[in-house]
Amino acid sequence: MTVRAALLIAASLILAPGLADAGTFRWASGGDVSSMDPYARNETFLITFTANIYEPLARRNKQLALEPALATAWGQTGPTTWFFDLRQGVTFSDGTPFTADDVVFSLGRAQGEGSNMQAYFSSVQAIRRAGAFRVEVDTKYPDPLLAMKWASLGIMSKAWAEKNNAATAADMTKNQENFATRNAMGTGPFMLKERKPEERTVLVPNPGWWDRRDHNLDEVIFTPVGNPATRVAALKAGNLDMIYEVPPADTDGLRRDAGLKVIEGPETRVVFVGMDQERPELPESNIKGRNPFQDRRVREAVYRSIDVEAIKRSVMRGQSYPTASLVAPVINGYVADLDRRPAMLKPEDARKLLADAGYPDGFEVGLDCPNDRYVNDDKICVALVPMLARIGIKVALNAQTRNKFFAKIMRKGDYSPGVTSMYLMAWSPGSTYDVHNVLDSLLQTPSAVTKKGQANIGGYSNKAFDELADRIERETDKAAREQMIRQATKIYMDDYAYVPLHQQALVWAASTKVELFQPADNTFPLRYVTVK
Fold first, then answer.
1. Which of 3.20.20.80, 3.40.630.10, 3.40.50.2300, 3.10.105.10 is the CATH number of 266-505?
2. pTM to 2 decimals?
3. What is the per-residue pLDDT for 481?
């Protein structure tokens, strides 16, 4: 079957007339969830989808504050010792009792081979069982953010994982799979009923869930629909109850539909362009024996030739918030007065910077971009091509599905780099809602030893920055910490480490018969959904 034929069949199925059964919630996104394994990828959509099945020790409430989940209490008994007291009487959906053994196993799996969540364990020295319902953690140094870091880590059943040969995570960067890739079994409000990758995933309520049931759903049907027009048409026709991404061009039309509503607000996610600064030679360029992006002048020329206001106006239809910062204003550690983009360069001035760096004729370079992950992601990349062409940088755009995109660019389990020269990505510090998550994941020197920089795809490295970020992680004095954050922010901005574009606007659309809650971090907890 051709790809085109498969897409036509999928479109016809989702647009087929007919009403859903009562209590059924049907929703769609532009791309599929990558895996059912909660540690497979440190990506918001995968984390929020699997969080309906797997629960963390502490979770976020509607105000994004920590609240008890599988742990009822946590804290520090000393500067480098944490404890987590676990909820008693909880069972996994197969009836297996939840105990400290499952937590120790899960945290070990999350920091182990194949996991993409290793960055959350950089401070950890040891994790141990201290009773059937207590876990203790020793850290190498004081880490006041540990409980917040682990709010993204769903807890798995040790018995289930070991029984099904899934005791370690499958490394998606190596196209590996195991039983947990297509199957799931947790303690959360929903259970996995059916998984057909790239087609549909069906969840049903967990009848033994320990918490109060606020939803009224009998079944949740998720369908990836890559074509934006098809998603919107299915919602208008009543064959979907909600779409997770609304194309900016369709927002006004959806608002005018009496049977629909648009839910929107600023998101904590920042969209940016990254550049490979690690390799001595770019893998996708006509320049041999050198890496242009290792020269600050080249990075500055790229940064100051990208017109974020034009992208906001013509690509995002006003639904973006241009930024110079890698963190949104609601994130702890945002430095407002440094969030000022330098003035755009005239093309001739940018070309002079390239010439001074040794590239008077410019150069050719590849640009990797997802086409189903962020709002108008591929259209943003299309807009970047002529902007950089004006200064002599010829871009070869490679836009592909999120699964192929992340598998190509992400670091492997040993922290070796993926294959990309330049890429479009976005980041939201969804585990801690603190700037340190950005400093640690996106900016610190990548290292399998320190567990830092796992999402630092381009390999930006600055020793002074690394030292500051380490101190920020463990500093408890608020004023001293804020001063160090300011210094670290200025370093990466002055280095043109990345090209921040905009804070993404968060726009969903749903039937007026649906009640749901939209967190600012773009997570989607199904436990808050009701259908009339």
1. 3.10.105.10
2. 0.81
3. 96
